[in-house]
């Protein structure tokens, strides 16, 4: 599972996800990509589940690139604990995804295989997605 080796601060504010993605909006490595079209917070477990789905569907042919990294610590308080007494402990890692961000890229497989792999992976993610290709924008 993905998580940072070290961070500057142990806990982070929740924040909001505003606007469109500033960078990472074009395909850089592969021929096909999975692009976010709605904002969301994606956890490390969801990224790993999507990655496994893609590689399994492609039968380990071709290459997969993960273009997102969970660097946001998400804290939770235990169940049935009263309010107050400070912020909870960091439980898992997540990343904020803005619309337009390319999350995964693949190469070395057919268009149909890539599309099916991304559709299966999109079911594991909590946001709306679109498959894009180097040949002609939206697929």
Please tell me about this protein's structure:
- The protein is an alpha+beta fold and 139 residues long.
- 19% of the residues lie in helices and 27% in strands.
- It has 2 helices and 7 strands; from the N terminus they run ββαββββαβ.
- The protein has helices at 44-57, 111-122; strands at residues 32-36, 40-43, 63-66, 72-76, 89-97, 102-107, 129-133.
- The strands form 2 sheets. Strands 3-6-1-7 form a 4-stranded antiparallel sheet, with helices on one face. It has a 3-stranded antiparallel sheet with strand order 2-5-4.
- The longest helix is centred in the middle third of the chain and has 14 residues, at 44-57.
- The mean pLDDT is 96.
Overall mean pLDDT = 96
Gyration radius from CA atoms, angstroms: 17 Å
Question: Class of one domain in CATH?
Answer: Alpha Beta
Cα-to-Cα separation, first versus last residue: 30 Å
The count of β-strands is 7
| Shape label | elongated
CATH homologous superfamily assignment of one domain: Ribosomal protein L16/L10
CATH topology of one domain: Aldehyde Oxidoreductase, domain 3
Keywords:
four-stranded antiparallel β-sheet, 19% helix, 2 helices, Aldehyde Oxidoreductase, domain 3, elongated, single chain
Give a brief description.
The protein is of the alpha+beta class. The chain has a domain at 32-69 and 95-133: Ribosomal protein L16/L10 (Aldehyde Oxidoreductase, domain 3, Alpha-Beta Complex), CATH 3.90.1170. Helices cover 19% and strands 27% of the residues.
């Amino acid at each position: 599972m993905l998580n940072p080796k070290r961070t500057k601060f142990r806990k982070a504010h929740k924040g909001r996800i505003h606007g469109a993605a500033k960078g990472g909006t074009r395909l850089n490595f592969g021929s096909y990509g999975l692009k976010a079209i709605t904002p969301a917070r994606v956890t490390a477990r969801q990224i790993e589940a999507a990655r496994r789905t893609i590689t399994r569907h492609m039968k380990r042919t071709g290459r997969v690139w993960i273009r997102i990294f969970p660097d946001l610590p998400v804290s939770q308080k235990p169940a049935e604990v009263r309010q107050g007494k400070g912020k909870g402990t960091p439980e898992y890692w997540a990343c904020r995804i803005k619309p337009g961000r390319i999350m995964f890229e693949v190469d070395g497989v057919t268009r149909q295989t890539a599309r099916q792999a991304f559709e299966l992976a999109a079911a594991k993610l909590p946001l709306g997605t679109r498959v894009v290709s180097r040949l002609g924008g939206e697929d």
